[in-house]
């Protein structure tokens, strides 16, 4: 990220300085007849831009414990939520559209699994194919979670009542298929450098990075803003409540800065926006690293948001259900108790 990924040694700078070519500099000599003197006009802008601008890499080898901790906590939290959903614990299967919520936990699990692949400090495990797979799963799982939250906000009641047959299956195939396609550009633009998984900006891959930045901006920025706008418009026109806003929307807080900063960085690399100083470039690089670290933390928070949403939904729906319906949500538990009691009686 930024102008340099690794610090440049002073010896290499000294060696390169002896081979500095002045062919690209413009020297303009003008002769003044009055004082018979030459005036040397230098292009200070080119000379200033030739100076190296070194940024501090926050996510270097020292950040490996952060990657490992986020991965372990994310896997444990997502696994616990998936176990609670599929084992009918806490009446969570009464939660509206719980299969969609389970897919959010699956997406968080996939993200947590590939975090160590992209972690710095594990140089021996990095290969181009593994890095491409890691970045592909990294962003595809994030795109899928964002699309699932958007679909849940718009289709939550229909998914819960089962009015449309096969809607959940079709939605699952469509969302994950679209997420894989949206993650394809970043998968193709990944390479390894100095044992690190990096994004390759050379070899004519600028179009892939611009496409990836545009996708991130649309999914992480425009999608929640569009849903909020649709809700406000429908409420203003008195045409229904619109998309539902719940605790799951906290997920976008972790990815919104990443989509914003990545889009800005793409404009800078395409020279649509020009940074005036080296300090501005360094600040942009630091913001990229901070946004990536914040986005990584979603794998720990996302399953907790799913658990909180299911707890709130089932707590609101349980008092309105008759007693047989409540018992039916725990078939395994009651069957286990009945079999145990019959065994003891014999």
UniProtKB/TrEMBL annotation:
Membrane topology qualifier: Multi-pass membrane protein
**Where does this one sit in the cell?**
Early endosome; Membrane; Recycling endosome
Question: What are the boundaries of the region Disordered?
Answer: 324-346
Q: Which UniProt keywords are listed?
A: Disulfide bond, Endosome, G-protein coupled receptor, Glycoprotein, Membrane, Receptor, Transducer, Transmembrane, Transmembrane helix
TM spans, by residue? 64-86, 98-118, 138-155, 167-188, 208-228, 248-268, 288-310
| InterPro entries noted in UniProt | Duffy_chemokine_rcpt
Query: Which GO molecular function annotation, any one, does this entry have?
Result: C-C chemokine binding
Per UniProt, the ranges with Polar residues bias are: 336-346
Q: Can you supply one Gene Ontology CC term for this chain's record?
A: membrane
A GO BP entry is:
chemokine-mediated signaling pathway
Q: What does this protein do?
A: Atypical chemokine receptor that controls chemokine levels and localization via high-affinity chemokine binding that is uncoupled from classic ligand-driven signal transduction cascades, resulting instead in chemokine sequestration, degradation, or transcytosis. Also known as interceptor (internalizing receptor) or chemokine-scavenging receptor or chemokine decoy receptor. Has a promiscuous chemokine-binding profile, interacting with inflammatory chemokines of both the CXC and the CC subfamilies but not with homeostatic chemokines.
Which family does the similarity line name?
Answer: Belongs to the G-protein coupled receptor 1 family. Atypical chemokine receptor subfamily.
Q: What is this protein called?
A: Atypical chemokine receptor 1
Q: Which organism is it from?
A: Sciurus carolinensis
């Amino acid at each position: 990220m930024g102008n340099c990924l690794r610090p440049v040694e002073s010896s290499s700078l000294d060696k390169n300085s002896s081979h500095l070519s002045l062919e690209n500099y413009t020297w303009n000599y003008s002769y003044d007849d009055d004082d018979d003197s030459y005036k040397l006009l230098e292009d200070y802008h080119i000379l200033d831009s030739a100076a190296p601008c070194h940024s501090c890499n926050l996510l270097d080898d020292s950040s490996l414990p952060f990657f490992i901790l986020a991965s372990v906590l994310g896997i444990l939290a997502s696994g616990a939520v998936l176990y609670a959903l599929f084992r009918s614990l806490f009446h969570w299967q009464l939660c509206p559209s719980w299969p969609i919520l389970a897919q959010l936990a699956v997406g968080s699990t996939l993200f947590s699994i590939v975090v160590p692949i992209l972690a710095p400090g594990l140089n021996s495990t990095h290969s181009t194919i593994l890095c491409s797979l890691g970045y592909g799963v990294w962003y595809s799982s994030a795109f899928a979670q964002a699309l699932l939250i958007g679909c849940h906000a718009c289709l939550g009641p229909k998914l819960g009542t089962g009015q449309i047959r096969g809607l959940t299956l079709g939605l699952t195939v469509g969302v994950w298929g679209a997420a894989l396609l949206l993650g394809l550009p970043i998968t193709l633009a990944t390479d390894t450098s100095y044992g690190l998984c990096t994004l390759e900006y050379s070899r004519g891959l600028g179009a892939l990075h611009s496409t990836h930045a545009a996708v991130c901006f649309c999914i992480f920025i425009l999608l929640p803003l569009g849903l909020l706008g649709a809700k406000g418009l429908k409420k203003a026109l008195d045409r229904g409540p619109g998309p539902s806003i719940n605790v799951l929307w906290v997920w976008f807080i972790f990815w919104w800065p990443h989509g914003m900063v990545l889009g800005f960085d793409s404009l800078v690399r395409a020279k649509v926006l020009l940074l005036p100083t080296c300090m501005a470039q360094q600040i942009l690089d630091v913001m990229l690293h901070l946004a990536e670290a914040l986005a990584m933390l979603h794998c720990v928070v996302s399953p907790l948001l799913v658990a909180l949403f299911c707890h709130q939904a089932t707590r609101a729906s349980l008092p309105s259900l008759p007693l047989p319906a409540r018992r039916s949500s725990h078939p395994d538990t009651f069957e286990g108790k009945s079999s145990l009691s019959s065994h003891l009686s014999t």
